[in-house]
Amino acid sequence: MSADPKQPPSALATVSTGSDATTPSMRNPMPVWIIILLFVLIFLSCVYFDTQGGWEPIVYRPYHSVREVELYQPPPPDGPNLAAGRALFEQQCGICHDNSGAGKPGQAPPLVGSEWVLGSPNRLIRIPQLGLTGPIKVNGQDYSFANSMPPIAAPWSDEDLVNVLGYIRQAWGNKAVKTDPITVQHVQAVRNEVKGQPSTTSDALSKVPAAIKK
Amino acid sequence: MNQGPIIFLAAFLALAASWFGMVLMPQGQVGQLQTTNTVGPVPTAYPIGMPGMARQGLEVYRAQGCAYCHSQQVRQSGTVCDVELTEIGTNQPAVIDALKKTVPGFNPQSANQLLTDLPKRITTGITKSEADAEVRALRAGGAKADVWIVPVGPDIARGYGKRQTVAEDFLYNPSVALGSDRIGPDLANIGGRNGDPNWHLRHLYAPRSEVKGSPMPPYRYLFEKRRITHSISPDALAFRAEAGVPDGYEIVPTQDARALAAYLTSLRVDAPLYSAPFSVPPPPPEPSTNAPAGGTNATPAAAGTTNQPAK
Predict the structure, then answer these.
(1) Rounded Cα–Cα distance for residues B281 and A77 (Å)
(2) How far is A15 from chain B (nearest CA, A)?
(3) What is the SS3 assignment for B284?
(4) ipTM of this predicted structure
(5) Long-range contacts of B232-240 (CB under 8 A, 24+ apart)
(6) B22 touches chain A (CB under 8 A)
(7) Per-residue pLDDT reduced to its tens digit, B8-37
(8) Is the pTM of this model over 0.90?
(9) Are B63 and B258 in contact (CB under 8 A)?
(10) Does residue B165 contact residue B95 with C-beta atoms inside 8 Å?
(11) In chain B, what residues touch A32 (CB-CB under 8 Å)?
């Protein structure tokens, strides 16, 4: 094929009326760069559709959007999730307080029937959040330990702390969760109040007002 | 006429584009999937890797070509909501008033009959906003009611699963036998529907003895037929008369048959996920004992109440 690119387009019309009708298209084949440009455009449009089209890998038919999937999530259970609280308690708190909540000699006081657990939420939330140093009186008995309690709940989410406190307030015969539940709002309020404070003591806790500041 | 480079370039571009579109982009979209948590009252890790026996069974499943007649994908055409009344409270007239306002076609004469045998689904198949409005009205009347999320669709009506299958379900499958034809039923949730490995073994040996009129071919070569000499082997299967096992013989499954049954009973799609939600009943209240709970292996992330999947 000896196509002459310099041939003016007007010449094509005269040739096409001639005997060889296929000649004009053979003389001016579609440039390769147009084909490449077409591929690139198709690819870019696919990428655009993929990233900007509201497509989410987590959304399956018959749902259409993340908002719709979110709408159909089962509502969270009322009050603390005691099963989750129990799991976290037995993983982290039970090492010292024992999974039975009876405490361990030389390590931690009991939680069963403890006035600190069943009493004011404002004081109770501070204990795992800040940690506790020094002696403490529980169930009329004085306890003092070589090591202080670490601020174990400081990295937990508000929900985790609510779940664990809800669990220890109703487990092992403790009965507090129904009458005076600790909510996420309580935990947030106390956490904002005690931000940056050092490890607390039982004397300091006794001076904290029983009711949570609104 | 040397068109070689152009043909090469065009073929290269076509293959590169399909590789980008069908391999690279999906890898970016769902290749990062990890073990996530189920949603619901007790979040647990999902999915859990296949046990070794089931892993061997997957190879048998592939080798026997089960995927030619059985699919492993449950489809879902929509999601509806039910309202379950759990407690009527003390103010019954207010609750009946709320039902009159929110439930279309509510007949006050049948109220007494409706409000017995609680908990009960009092309204079914409505949208989420209607269900929320109804629950709000009932709670204002002092009753306790919950919204239940119910997936619907032909496959779910057939009992193939409680929800549709999503990519997470196949996370630990080294090869996914999705299947496309359904000469037999869908097997995505067969372990949840029938978790008895002995039933599966009997069904593999003699399908029509367990399912009347089953078109499935028997897989007798996965079993050993032995003459009973002294006593029956403890591994021998207890067949019905229809299976056609002659007197004086016993049928013992081979390792392949056992692995296949273990694989089939391990197939379960019955956990609610963030991407495929549905309601499950809350766990029964645990007695206050010191026995180790089933939930002790939950991670701190699993203990959180966020419904977001692990990124």
Answers:
(1) 11
(2) 22
(3) coil
(4) 0.74
(5) B237/B198, B237/B201, B237/B202, B237/B205, B238/B198, B238/B202, B239/B202, B239/B205, B239/B206, B239/B209, B240/B202, B240/B209, B240/B210
(6) no
(7) 998 998 999 899 889 988 888 788 888 888
(8) no
(9) no
(10) no
(11) 6, 9
